[in-house]
Amino acid sequence: MPQRSMIESSHQTWKVNAAMAALVLAGIGAVVSFAGPRQARLGADLVLFCSGFMSMGFVRSVRCPKCRKSLGWWAFRHSRLDRWREDLESLTSCPLCGFRDADVP
Ligand SMILES: [Zn+2]
After folding, report:
1. What is the number of domains present in the chain?
2. What residues make up the domain containing 90?
């Protein structure tokens, strides 16, 4: 039987989804900032800046239930840029302390 994702079982999937939504918003802000009408560029810069920070905040807030270290940041630093989300969501144990979801009664 396949093990459940640690992120899913600790109810942190919404943080990953929020980070992805903020990244999409940052991408839209970047496109408008560089190629949009001049009047919209200040607003787009603000959207890019804020949503970029929000995205990193959501990524960093995905934590191990036991050691409380950031699994999101770990995945972001140790995985390829196009695989960090998949690697994060497939974790069945904490790569930092070894905690396994199955250890919870
Ligand atoms: Zn841990």
Report:
1. 1
2. 11-96
